[in-house]
Amino acid sequence: MKTASRTIEHWDAEDVEAWEGTNGNPPGKAIAKRNLIWSIFAEHVGFSVWSIWSVMVLFMPQDVYGIDAAGKFYLVAMPTLVGAVMRIPYTVAPAKFGGRNWTIVSALLLLIPTVLTLWVMNNPGTSYTTFMIVAAVAGLGGGNFASSMTNINAFYPQRLKGWALGLNAGGGNIGVPVIQLVGLLVIATVSNTAPEIVCAIYLVLIGLAALGAALFMDNLGNQRSNLGAMAEALRFKHSWVMSFLYIGTFGSFIGFSFAFGQVLQINFLAGGDTAAEASLHAAQIAFIGPLLGSISRPFGGKLADRVGGGRVTLYTFVAMIFGAGVLVVAGVLDDAAAGAPTSAQMIAYVTGFIVLFILSGIGNGSTYKMIPSIFEAKAQGRDDLSREEKAAWSRSMSGALIGFAGAIGALGGVAINIVLRASYVSDAKSATNAFWVFLAFYVVCAIVTWLVFLRMQTSRAGAGEQIGRAASPVPA
């Protein structure tokens, strides 16, 4: 039943009759789809604002703003860090204030970092500390992901969560390449001295996101998620394992999204480009990786729906080892030769990064499929709960973990930018050492995935791979 405040008091996505509308009421799947569409749009704008500084650094020649490449890596890492922290309170916000209500508020909050960015970019003499503070406020956009995912998780039945969450997350993630494309169009058609145009476009889109949420989204009266639920979810070892694995998938996506353009710009400058030429050439390529990573995410979730999240996640990390290996080889060859990277080496750099973007998207989808499956399986072992109570407990636990894992995963993006900065300011003055670190981390992620989720399949009669398909109880 929906009230005048656009609140649906009782929502049960697992009720097939209500979902299909055969009980005489509007089909639940139509309501869920409408909320999903506007959730994607609002989250999309949030991701764009979160990553706005990955574009702004392309408009910041050192001789004008006085900020070198090392300083720019910190500038793009700051919103990642704040966005990770904001995901904790944003996780519980939809249940406390209503999914529709919080989507409106969280969209309008994006006006703050966008206006501040517009102001500091038009005042190049502003102190570096002020730039860092403004970049930190852009982290508000990172919180939108957690509230959006938690909200949509409650709307969809277990059998469709992988696709729905993957689509929601992928549509949000695509905000990264879209704002980079906007930046490219501005640089190519106007100049690399007009960042205010990018900010103005997003002020309009923020207003549209808030208006769409107000007109077309709903609150769920029986949605439950709070800090107590998060604390309970973290009692299970699988919660910590999933959070760690999410560093390797989403952390890679967001970290590379923020850093890719900067790495390209450094290489183009080393090749003799002017600052304007390096900005244009970097912008022409940088959006491709995040775009393909965003597109691949829902397919990772859908594949996990069919064959199991654990298996897809393992194969993804194994492939990411090879992707990082391409970067290592290119870096070693580049370091061994004098002068700027050759065309072949630049192609290898771009190829390695794009492969990692695509795989991180697939891994994002498969890991987020695994989270609700873990608690659905655990709920079936709770004989003290009724069917409705099991469903509510599963939704609450998975919603809480989605936010926590998203926060921990985003810290991987911070680490990527810090490791790259450290690698560039080292004696080697290249990214090769950072590439070795990435490769080693993916090896660890693959081993952990196999030990916890795949090896368990044989040792515990299939329980391991059921995480990702949610058919049997999972040990704590």
UniProtKB/TrEMBL annotation:
GO terms for biological process: nitrate assimilation. It is found in: Cell membrane. Keywords: Membrane, Nitrate assimilation, Transmembrane, Transmembrane helix. The chain crosses the membrane at residues 36-61, 73-90, 102-121, 127-146, 167-188, 200-220, 240-260, 280-300, 312-333, 345-363, 400-422, 434-454. InterPro entries: MFS, MFS_dom, MFS_trans_sf, NO3_transporter. Residues 241-476 form the Major facilitator superfamily (MFS) profile domain. GO terms for molecular function: nitrate transmembrane transporter activity. PANTHER family: HIGH-AFFINITY NITRATE TRANSPORTER 2.3 (PTHR23515). This is MFS transporter. It comes from Mycolicibacterium flavescens (Mycobacterium flavescens). The lineage of its organism: Bacteria, Bacillati, Actinomycetota, Actinomycetes, Mycobacteriales.
